[in-house]
Amino acid sequence: MSAPRPHHLADMTTEEAALAVTERPVVLLAAGAFEQHGPALPLATDLVRAEAVTERVAARLAGRVVIGPHLPVGVSPHHVAFPGTLSLSVTTFRTVVREYLEGLYRHGWRKVLIVTGHGGNNASLTTLAQDLLADLPDLEFAWTPLTTVAADVVARMPISEVHGHSGEAETAQMLHLAPGLVHTDRFAPGTRRLTELDALSRLARRAGHPTLQVRYDRLSANGVLGDPARATAEDGAAIVDRVVDEITDFVEEWLQA
Prior knowledge:
alpha/beta; Rossmann fold; 4-stranded parallel beta sheet; 4 strands
């Protein structure tokens, strides 16, 4: 029999959950995706990273936060051309998240933070947050991405001109957090330069605004942006440490607010 995990709501009894509402007023939820991550990374890469960060934040804030049920499938229509990818519609994802939040709210929690490893979830979380300001004004709902929180760390890495999905930064995090799930013998570069993209795809990867969405099978034949072979576990540790530091600092302030 496995030992109970001290920070996890799932491992608590209902009596322990009732106590946690006052003793651990912040709930952390890990959100990911179930989608292709190139030839070398698993479909659950985004959830693996999000769960690892929530575990580390919870350990740093021992006794003050609880980890709620994770959200393993996200909004991934841009990856559906690749085998194994599952995607929820924006409406379904928002509904699932909202019903998680309403359930936690019903039992007394008023501070919930979602840690999402998948950028495709961001827009849904932003619009849900706006709705909740009107519908549940005393619920403090926050969310955060992962890699972009450590943008300065990533900028110091040997990244390609085109990088991102399954590339240097994401692979580095997986080498640090779950090396047994990384098939290093299958590393293959994807799209690395803007000149490799067609005109519409170059617009989609252009920094700033306007924003244009295209499918990943148009951006990259193997689903990779960048060169995972340039990733190191050391770079991954630096990214994860920065993200954990930033989220922990936020929650510390939140608890005092």
